[in-house]
Amino acid sequence: MRQSCIDDVLVDMWTHDPFSAHKDANGNIYARGSQDMKCVGIQYIEAVKRLKSNNIQLKRTIHMSFMPDEEIGGTDGMKKFVRTEDFRKLNVGFALDEGIASPTEEFLLYNNERSVWKMTVHCPGTPGHGSLLLNDTAGEKLRVIIDRFMDFRQKEKEKLLSNPKFTIGDVTTINLTMLMGGVEPNVVPPELEVTFDVRLALDVDHNKFQTTLETWCAEAGPGTTITFISQDPKVPTTAVDDTNPWWRAFKKETDALGLKLKPLIFPGGTDCRYIREVGIPALGFSPMNNTPVLLHDHDEFLNEKVFLKGIEIYQRIIPTIANV
Hints:
N-acyl-aliphatic-L-amino acid amidohydrolase
């Protein structure tokens, strides 16, 4: 069901109806969510179905979870679920979650992700008529805040560009996503607000960054405050070396399959972070190589051969991990 005018606009941008799962002559399946994440969900189900059909007996139990709110932060889904008695009783030892398509022969593998801090900065000030030069206005404070955030952003861009080994997951990203305030063109508003999406790199000290934010607010002027929409803590990185038996099993099977793995830090936010936060090792992996990255994009597609190969990959990986 197309639920909003946004969906209708997106439909107009697609070569094929994004809800039709159209397959072209090259075997490319065009569908909203074909890369993110209908593919992996279906591949999990089909791989487990084949294992059961072949009467494969495993040492450990396989649980598949489908959460409804990962795209909006997972705060009412996995974040709460991992702290319930029901989850504890599952006795989870290891988890697999999503990755991203790779345009090359390599398969991308993620063993941690940046901490998501989304925040709104409130800039109160002296209201009045637009013909005056009032002191301590919201606009003056807003200017300071935007400058501080954007200066930091520019330094991170330079850091990313200066090191060819870095990917986006290795640096802190800052993006201004919303501006709010004002009632009339000739009225100086009593408050302006600006929202930022910040993803903290693994090497960032959270306490120091919090102090930096407080310093910026003080520099902007009295009354400038921050409301956090999300403020993820640091979570343990899942080891991808011989100290981790789950990784050894995973790597053994992918080597046997001839897969070229490239471990990275995930650039976005997945439910994996909540699993790692409670001390459970987890890897993000989607078996999609030789595929352009089109998640959330127009004409998102996945080739049928890549999709079917992914089922075979999971059919090999899952029992190997489950028999650790």
